[in-house]
From TrEMBL:
Gene Ontology cellular-component terms listed: plasma membrane
Membrane topology: Single-pass type I membrane protein
Family: Belongs to the RAMP family.
GO biological process: one example: intracellular protein transport
Record carries keyword Calcium: no
Spans traversing the lipid bilayer: 120-141
Coiled coil (UniProt feature): none
Protein name, entry field: Receptor activity-modifying protein 3
Keyword terms: Cell membrane, Disulfide bond, Glycoprotein, Membrane, Receptor, Signal, Transmembrane, Transmembrane helix, Transport
GO terms of molecular function: coreceptor activity
Annotated compartments: Cell membrane
Length: 150
């Protein structure tokens, strides 16, 4: 059976054993070539899962969030077991490629911000100014009155 090395702190032991990827990271550090060879397995698994989601729902994150979380966890495990940090530029590039494949038609609806009409905007500006002036006047009046009493 597979066993995780005690020094492989980043290896998710249960997940690594299930995926058959739990290995000791190389002593020399990040094995980028090996990482790039392993990441496509995550992409292939994600592609299989995305077949269960109708294409027109690909832009609705709630339809596939579990699959996407599984995909990102997979990329993290594959990256960590070869001694690399996650995320890193190469892993990000791979993930971006997957995004381009599945989500290139998804647009982010950006709210067009507009100033409210003048009849709303002017009171929103004037009322705090008048309240500030009134409170300042009240404080000055109270302090003068208190000085007269003493």
């Amino acid at each position: 059976g597979l066993h995780c090395c005690p020094e492989a702190r980043n290896c998710h032991q249960t997940l690594g054993i299930l995926l058959g990827t739990c290995e000791c990271p190389p002593v020399s550090g990040c094995n980028e070539k090996r990482m790039l060879a392993m990441l496509p397995r995550c992409g292939k698994t994600f592609a299989e899962m995305m077949k269960k989601v109708e294409v027109w729902k690909w832009c609705n994150l709630s339809e596939f969030i579990v699959y996407y979380e599984s995909f990102t966890n997979c990329t993290e495990v594959e990256t960590n077991v070869v001694g690399c940090y996650w995320p890193n530029p190469l892993a990000q590039s791979f993930i971006t490629g997957v995004h381009r494949r599945y989500f290139h038609n998804c647009s982010v609806d950006r709210q067009q911000w507009q100033d409210p009409p003048d009849e709303i905007l002017i009171p929103l500006i004037v009322v705090p100014i008048l309240l500030t002036l009134a409170m300042t006047g009240l404080v000055v009046w109270r302090s003068k009155r208190a000085a007269q009493v003493v």
